[in-house]
Amino acid sequence: MNQTTLAAALLDPGLPCPPGLTTWNGSDPTRRLAVHRNNIVVSLIDALSATFPVTRQFVGDDFFHAMARTFVHRQPPTSPVMAFYGAALPDFIASFVPAQALPCLPDLARLEMARLHACHAADAALVSREDIGAALATDTPICELVIACHPSVQVLRSAHAVVSLWAAHQDDALLEQLGELDVTRPESAVVLRQAGDAVVLPVPLGVAVFTQSLLHHRPLAHASAEAQASDQHFDLAAALQLLLTQGAVSSISPPIRHTP
Description:
Blueprint: H1 3-11, H2 29-51, H3 53-59, H4 61-74, H5 89-95, H6 105-120, H7 129-136, E1 146-149, E2 154-158, H8 162-168, H9 172-176, E3 187-194, E4 197-203, H10 205-215, H11 220-230, H12 236-245, E5 249-253
Helix pairs in contact: 2-4, 3-4, 5-6, 6-8, 10-11
């Protein structure tokens, strides 16, 4: 018996006890295997509960645990690093039939995963006034400048009010008003790390599209045009001020010129 066979048996209750598995005291290895199976599954469900606390609160412990158990059996860990186990849960929720009555649920889980990625992202110095001045002093037109976001920056665009839904679970007073929330209202957010903690910034759609474009290393004019096309009320100056004051920008520089 090899480790792969044992790992498969531990995570799949439909598989028989692997041949050659013995216990130190001669007891039934099938019963011992069942105990280990349960312990492993419970620990993985607990890990998912810790990563997606608002998702769990929104649907209730029983529903979440049943959903998480199915996920664990279908998508067990593939890495010994457990920090990002559950990254595939939002997409799994979208296809999980019992969750179809809650169309906001996948994006709520995506928002929580964005916070996790923001917390664990690499660090980087923020852009300074001197950096901005140096970029503006070059011969490069402002519209061609490339703004690099801090590594922790994430963007969420949802057809549902998941930003307000998440915020309500952080404040008891807001939670009491949850029944008045129109969950069908589209919302967007920029997520980033500040002082070691992930912060969720509700933003208009245009700002979300603009930031997403910057994350794809598009120049200022391109990012602004994409934002304007998605939101006629997009204000470039206000968007830049928001990203700068919130610590979302790590550099401003001319584009890289590739020599032929």
